[in-house]
Amino acid sequence: MATTTLVRERVGYRSTLFEWLTTTDHKKIGVLYLTSSLIFFLLGGLQALAIRTQLAFPNQALLDHATYNDFFTIHGTTMIFLFAMPILSGLANFVVPLQIGAADMAFPRINALGFWMVPMGGLLIYATYLAGGAGIGWTGYVPLSDAGPGGVFGPGTGLGVDFWIMGLVFLGASSILGAINFLATIFKLRAPGLTMWRLPIFVWTVLVTQTLALFAIPVFTTALVLLFIDRNFTHGAFFNPAAGGNAILWQNMFWFFGHPEVYIMILPAMGVISEVVPVFSRKPLFGYKAFIGATIGIGLLAFGVWAHHMFATGAVYLPFFSFVTGLIGVPTGIKFFNWLATMWRGQISLKTPMLFAIAFLAMFLIGGLDGAVLAAVPFDYDVTDTYWVVAHLHYVLFGGTALGVFAGIYYWFPKMFGRYLDERLGQIHWLLMFIGVNLTFFPMHILGLEGMPRRIATYPATLDWPILNLLATIGAFVIAAGVAVFFVNLAISIRAGAPAPDDPWDAYTLEWATTSPPPPYNFDTLPPIRSERPLFDLKHGAASDGGALAVATVAAGAGGPGGEA
Amino acid sequence: MGFRATWHRLALAFRRLSSPRPSLAGVPGRPRRAATRLRAIVLVALAAVLLGGCSLAYPAAGGTVQGQDIRSLYDILLIPVVVIFVLVEGLLVWALLRYRGRRANLPHQTHGNNLLEITWTVIPTLIVLVVFALSMQTLGKVDAKSSDPALVVDVTGKQWFWDFSYPVQKVTVSGAGQEPVIDLPVGETILIRLHSDNVIHSFYVPGFLFKRDVIPGLGNQFDINITTPGIYRGQCAEFCGFGHADMRFSIQAVSQAEFASWIAGQQAAAAATPTPAPSLAAGATTLSVSASTTTGFEQSSLSVAAGKPFAVAFDDKEAGVPHDFAIKDSSGKVLFNTRIITGPASETATAPALPAGTYTFFCQVHPNMQGTLTVQ
């Protein structure tokens, strides 16, 4: 399938470092995003280990309350804003232009700017540790995060929270720039023949995700700026009740962003899975259009569920948010059944990308189900703000997003560097992750039902809390071991991994039609694009698709199956 | 050797399972005994884990009428959750075991099926509708408020303790300095009114399967009818700063007669002299500690007699800065701590008897504030 036979020469007049620092190549920026995100993943993970060590036994004081609060705040902020979002942006940066047959993103310089704002925002957020800490939780609820009039005591009295706000405003601006760039790229730079109904599913999920980001993040940035005014200018009074503000307003603004944010973090991971599962089952994605419909459906419903984080406040209209929250499970269910149907009667090969995809399916299902029941308001009254929610969000964001990201890295690493990640180390990484995630997060369900609140720095030796917490802590170290294996794998494979051909997985989409790694301009020639699997058509021809291709063509003309949801 | 033989047999079984189907078996699904047995084992193991998880995860019956309503909803929610979990994970495991391995010919390239898509859209939607209707029904009961409650209790969230007061009976139980225990009667409608003039807290009693946020500027209220006497642990569930983990309380649910006598006792105690200091055995010492900066206590070493409880008088002289006084042993386990107070303020508390030895005293807010406590 190689269409490029150019010999790549070393550029003589500037250093490699200079080239990486000033690059506007989407592939290099993608790799930069991945690198920065993985560094922050390590930092966030170290804080998580410290938290779990503190909670290993009852009544411990390895961390004092203030440090504990700083750690879980910055752990959450890091994992969401400096790991999950940018690493998905990194994958999308590398993959989207290749998958749509473009030479680069629509605005390469804005792309570079967007990336460099991420480590800058990260520095600001980590500066909180030098400025008195920001132990307010990643949700930053007012009045705790406020130091304004009224004399409320919180960690908000220091400069730390101001740094936290500024860091997040930076990261928000970066995401907005990225969103505009992705939308322009996907709408305007598609190769001839690549209609919207032939776009790879990953591109579709990025499209919906970036649209969500464009609508959600400005609301969060606004809330942050209002909080900054409240904190630093005495007559702000937006959120602080003691000064005439409304504490619930912060929660409404925060979650109006915060829930779409969950889908911003999970939809692209679902997109990765929807690339991996078909390729490693040797079948097309079952119900391609239904899947797109479900993705759009989730995107729309995502803006109508935010107040399910606020059921216990007694200040929201319960029936609406309860109903929409239940409803958003339906398109998610459609996706699950489509993935299963894709595997059904396929020829499944369990390479590492597929292993991670399967772990994603198994874990995300648990995260989805234990979240779906939270839509039932009375159940939410019981378990909200307990470890049940901690279990739920980690099954979604670790079992879902992080495992999906690993699937994506194992899948696209050969394209990025022309070498495979080591398969055996990958299997060990996978096994440790699978065990670690369940050992850490499953006991938290039971802790939640037994009434252990979130974010407590110590706990008494009551009920099963000590043993369940100890299990979770052991699990956290198993995860850490898995992550260590992953980094060893990266370090070894990037230099000495087995050389990978252009199309190592016998895949379907355009990125595999160029060399590994691709040349700076991506493609010399493109294969004809007649379906969502141009490379499959090229390799196997329409004949081997049986009668199904005809169906797909007809469907493409006639609106197609299952656009519902 | 036995281990190696077993391992070998197991590896063989896996290999047989994972090896590509012989081309002779053009008809997929030819039964093979080893594979079938392995599948059965995997499925049984999954079911066992699931059942184990469920029995552990199932909460006790709620101690209030409202809690029992919520608990009944658990029974309903559990059905679709377990069915969907078993179905989807089962299909996933089955697909993995059944369709592994690459063959020479491509599998049939199925692009989709509209009937299936409609099925797995409509059925989950119906489940969502049913669950929604049932949960709204329960919600109506849980959130219902009586116009004529038998008892009103005001609960105030402070940083970081709870105050309880019975406005009609003029009884107040403060959590300042100790974990408060309040009595409530069974079999009566009790209106709980929540107040905060600082940050957001959440009033959570796991035994009632219920919590409600305590939000400044928003007077949340709810009714409970306790059915079962007993002691119910409670704790703040909304992160509220340094002392969040310390905001615990207990509710002792008693008969109406016992409650009446408890109230009378509280009223009598309040009418008597101001609350006496916690009683200490004769000869007990008082440890005086103070802090005026965040760099250290004003005392770097303290000593106290072994085997006897002692009083701690802690004085936070630093205006606007929170401190506490805590004692930990060499393993880092916290043996005692006062409340975190924001200066200028002082706090007196009784520390438990300690065996002889050397301990570290420190401030949980500022862990670099440390000193040595010698117990002899």
Provide tags for this entry.
A: 565 residues; mainly alpha; Cytochrome C Oxidase, Chain A; 17 helices; 0% strand; globular; B: 376 residues; alpha+beta; Helix Hairpins; Immunoglobulin-like; 3 domains
Protein architecture, described:
Chain A is mainly alpha-helical and 565 residues long. Chain A has a single domain, classed as Cytochrome c oxidase-like, subunit I domain (Cytochrome C Oxidase, Chain A, Up-down Bundle). Helix content of chain A is 64%, strand content 0%. Chain A is built from 17 helices and no strands. Chain A has helices at 16-22, 26-54, 65-99, 108-126, 160-188, 201-232, 247-281, 288-301, 318-327, 329-343, 352-372, 377-383, 387-417, 423-449, 465-496, 534-540, 548-557. Chain A is globular. In chain A, 64% of the residues are buried. The model of chain A is unreliable at 546-565 (pLDDT under 50). By secondary structure, chain B is an alpha+beta fold. Chain B has 3 domains: 32-99 and 115-143, Helix Hairpins (Orthogonal Bundle); 151-271, Cupredoxins -  blue copper proteins (Immunoglobulin-like, Sandwich), CATH 2.60.40; 286-375, Cupredoxins -  blue copper proteins (Immunoglobulin-like). In chain B, the strands form 5 sheets. Chain B has a 5-stranded mixed beta sheet with strand order 3-2-1-5-8. Chain B has a 5-stranded mixed beta sheet with strand order 4-10-9-6-7. Chain B has a 5-stranded mixed beta sheet with strand order 12-20-19-15-16, with no helix packed on it. In chain B, a hairpin with a 4-residue loop joins strand 1 and strand 2 (162-166). In chain B, helix 2 packs antiparallel against helix 3 (65-98) and helix 3 (65-98) runs antiparallel to helix 4 (114-143). The longest helix of chain B is centred in the first third of the chain and has 34 residues, at 65-98. The model of chain B is unreliable at 13-31 (pLDDT under 50). Classes of the chains: A mainly alpha (565), B alpha+beta (376).
